[in-house]
Specification:
Strand content: 25-35%
Shape: globular
Helix content: 10-25%
CATH superfamily of one domain: YVTN repeat-like/Quinoprotein amine dehydrogenase
Distance between the termini: 57 Å
Amino acid sequence: MSISSRQLNYLVWRYLQESGFELSSYALQKEAHPQQLEKDLGEKVAMGTLITLVQKGIQLTQLEQNVQKPDSVRSTADRKVYTLLNALDQELVEPDTPSSREYTPPSDILRDKDNEGDQEMENSVGKESTPLEPSNEIPTNESNSSKVTAHQPQDNHQQHNNEPNWNTEVVYEGAPVSAAQWSKDTVAVGSTNVELIDMNTKNTVTLAQPSSIPENEVTVISWSHDGSLLATASFDGQISVWTSDGKLRHVLSLHGSPVLVLKWNDDDSSLLSVDCTNRLVVWDSASGDIRQRFQPEPSNLPLEAPPSTTSSGTDAGWIDSTTYAATDGVNIVIYKLGEPKPLLQFQGHSQGINSIEFDTYSQLLCSGSDDHTVRIWNGKASVPVHTLVGHSGPVLATRWLMAPDSLSQVLDPEARRPAIVASASIDGTIRVWDAYSGQCLNLLNAHKSPIFFCELSPNGKYIASAAVDGVVMIWDFSKGPQQVDLVARHEKAPGGEASGLSVLTWSEDSTRLFVSYGKGVVLKLANDL
């Protein structure tokens, strides 16, 4: 069979689009550019072609094994050379001739910055941050929810210098890291094992995984707030709870699918776990017993929803010590310990929800979705109070910011503190919103690739963002949401490892980042901010 790598990339790209894997298809599109074959192959390649070819390949292999005899002789004229689409009785045309069919990208979610180079970043040095003016375009309210549309992107950050303001140190080399979290002076790193790295002595303790499945990848790691307990979950759904010195306390076995979320409540008395089938379990941290469990019905997605909306539960979080929220497809469900049924369901997103976070001060919940919107909920209604429109790609992370005290609060202690939320998208931007008014206050667009990570520092002063190209940036929010400074930028880790990141976590003192690149090299990035 004759097939070029470009043709294979095109078929895989088409398969990812047909299956609704928007992020994966976009990543392949940016790296391999399979869309360049769309003009010539788009009308020739039917839906499901990759699967059909694989099936036919299996059949032809079996046929060859059954009928090819060692003594048989064929003339070369009888032999047929299979090209990419011969098995489907279609003629493959290489993209050498122009076509009248114009190519329209499946999703225009990232501004093309390939030709801009680094000159734009250098020119931004010393420029003042310019906040976005509130948009005058506010559509009519629907179902008591206001929809706010932001202005088009522009440079809205100040960079103090264009040198990577980092001290880097390799502290771990091993299998590709799938999860990690910092607690005090210890980083828990998960791959096929869990290792505790003392960041002062660099000593490492390897935890003995109780799973009977070899090479069982760790999917998520979560330290308790006081740092005394560590919860780890593996691909087979098993959860282990360890003491801070690496002793196994509990093995929690109820999930039969990969666990995606582990969250401790405020007093560390309960551990919430969510797997990829949306099963939720709340565990008693002292005894290891099950306090509550739910298995939401998967039928709550609209029938007309495209495949990308059928995403599993991808985030959950505690509202208080007994109440928690979890994603369920396109909805957010509120649960309470001791209640046999969910308390409330938030409806409004049209595609899968990637991030939810509750703000204890404003008592508001924010969510980011594949439908490119951020929504603000207040718990008094099942529809959002604001739908924030501005991103041109799926929103992967939302974070509440600790806004500095305003002058009005100094004069009047009873004045309402601002409620500010930041959202990061694969369109390569971070937007900063006023959750009360729904207005976009600032736009941070220094990244040139989709942003996959956005983490607030424990002191509330910085946000660390990391893009698919491996670039890490630190944003200083201490002057307020409308005067954000880009204070550090890290291009690529030393040693020539892969550029993509898989883990990003802050130290408790907000001075260091623990970052993992694709080949298992984890860096401690120290920075004098």
